[in-house]
Amino acid sequence: MTPTLVRRHRSSAAPAPRVDRCARARDWSEIQERMLVPLHEAVYERLDVGPGTRLLGLRCGTGLALLTAAARGAEVTGVDSSPERLALARRRLLPDGPRAGYAGRGGRARTAPRLLADPPGGAAGAETAGYTLVSVFEPVGCLAGDAEGLGELLAAALPGAARGAAVVLVGWGPPERCATSSVLRVAAKLADPLCGARGWRPALRDDLEEVAERAGLRPDGSGRVSCPFGYADLDSAVRGLLSTGLFDAAIAATDARQVDKELTEALHPYRRADGTVWMPNVFRYLVARVP
């Protein structure tokens, strides 16, 4: 009889694996977030972000994209549901406290950045209405169902945007142009769909347009930006990729040790002679307008 290999999965009733959220947030801030800097800069250049810009950054992470916009003179508000990431964003953007003055481009005093757990609404929203740019630099289409969650976030945020304001959505480029796609397939392979896991999936061509359409936005151009992922070593690469959250479903379905092992093996083809890890990627962004 031919032996049958069975991969052990956690029961759907089993508790989710414990994750050190503070360590994940630090890894995101120190390792992974900078990978998208070319994308931030390309978008800000295209939209001429500067002193006249009022930016609302949704899923702002630990605030690097907000910091870049503020350095160009923009007034920025960031929203993220992770208290650990928001804490690091405050440390980065408001090192002297929330009431401190902020010097923008040219040394002019600017309104201090605001960092919130939810989109501003009610009285808070009225105070900050008129955002000229709403950005979501967290790539759409990575997880099954993430577009629906983004739609809810946009519905809560867009009432505070000015008519004609730009809304920027970001997604992965074609899998054949993203070396990291082959590594992220580990997440899809190990996640257990029978347990309702929201594992990674390849980006689809119209992901961004579908989100914009459901939000009632008018597409106004798009672009592609090269964002290679470069790491000092395999350990940094594993920590950086895990910090994205794209492997959480795989960890829940198996265990952290197995995910680490298979992720490390998947990264070996991208390890260079000096021990660094280098993966070329292309990201796509869509600019849409608030009617």
TrEMBL record:
It comes from the Bacteria. One of its GO terms (biological process) is methylation. InterPro entries: SAM-dependent_MTases_sf (IPR029063). Keywords: Methyltransferase, Transferase. One of its GO terms (molecular function) is methyltransferase activity. The keyword Methyltransferase applies. This is SAM-dependent methyltransferase. It comes from Streptomyces pyxinicus.
